[in-house]
């Protein structure tokens, strides 16, 4: 019997579609560019104008305010980005447009002027808005309904994000802090050009995913014209509730790029055994390092937990992740007390905090992406993914406001408040888990469910 050559989009590598790895490397380089710029953002703004490596000379308060607005807009722009994909271009073409805009934005940011700084940020906001929600939705579209590999596929994709997030602060951070801020921004731009090149080259592996749902196609027209069922409406409700949790989660977590970044530079003893001083921006890579090294461990834990018959719904994991992340701020409270006593705090407090933040993120973030692809109606897939990233952006804005508040309230009070309040919120969600799971109507169950109006519902099947 002759061997049948599979089409490129049907080929697999290590048990997953080859398209997953195209999206993996595209996102890895996109995140390299974003986190490289993010590591330098507040440090560049507060750098003295008279130094040999001059910045804008802003106050901490002003830098944190702009950081909050910028990171919010980066992710809120995912809503129009998702809408463009759903209505006009499809996910695949919108990602292509987003990558091109990001290449332009990061290249402009490398220029040395105040005008180019704002112009570069503007193009990055537009680019992330087009790319971020749609590339995540495309990952879900690579898998057929009820494919058990979906969650693992998102973990692999998430590894790509964090390999880029690990390398960027070290490389871009070192170049930016020690040589020239704009060289660091330029290195981030090179990363984005690599990402766009990978995506363009890999189109043959993505022919079946991310295409526009068009009224010209009879089946697509039926999807677009069919009104939402009550099950789909309930699932949208639980997604909106999960988005509130996402806002709160990132409002605390994103102190990393703002308040904790400035704390590392201004109040942490970064002397490494008297040999050299570690650049503050390097600490931005600690989170990604822990993700790369611990993702498999955390994923294996949840798999074993589920096989033991214990609660393992996505909402439960998000709530547990919030509690673990919140407890990490207890280490920052200890760092603040040490600073008050000694005039500086040890590096290990930051590392311990990032460790718990990472474990919390691994519990909450990858599963939330997969959760959306299971619950979101197909005709609204990209815009709902955009709403998720917009929730992340709102969390970033709240993070900036919290960071600003620390300048008057005190860092110990802010760190301790987050540790206590966010832990209580996570515990309350766990207490309310049963009614929240009912709204999902078995979307995460292994077997098909029958809805209360007698209609058969196959979980994620209608949403892929």
UniProtKB/TrEMBL annotation:
Q: Which UniProt keywords apply?
A: Cell membrane, Membrane, Peptide transport, Protein transport, Transmembrane, Transmembrane helix, Transport
Quote the subcellular location field of this record: Cell membrane; Membrane
Which residue numbers delimit the Major facilitator superfamily (MFS) profile domain? 22-438
The protein's matches in InterPro entries, at most eight in alphabetical order, are given as: Dipep/tripep_permease, MFS_dom, MFS_trans_sf, MFS_Transporters, POT_fam, PTR2_symporter_CS
Q: Which domain of life does this protein belong to?
A: Bacteria
The protein's predominant localisation is membrane
- Coiled-coil region: none
Q: How does it sit in the membrane?
A: Multi-pass membrane protein
Q: Which chain regions cross the lipid bilayer?
A: 64-85, 94-111, 117-143, 155-176, 182-202, 236-253, 282-303, 315-334, 346-364, 376-394, 414-433
Would the keyword Phosphoprotein be found if you checked this record's keyword annotation?
no
Q: Work out whether the entry's keyword set contains Protein transport.
A: yes
The family this protein is said to belong to: Belongs to the major facilitator superfamily. Proton-dependent oligopeptide transporter (POT/PTR) (TC 2.A.17) family.
Q: Know the name of this protein?
A: Peptide MFS transporter
Source organism per UniProt: Zobellia barbeyronii
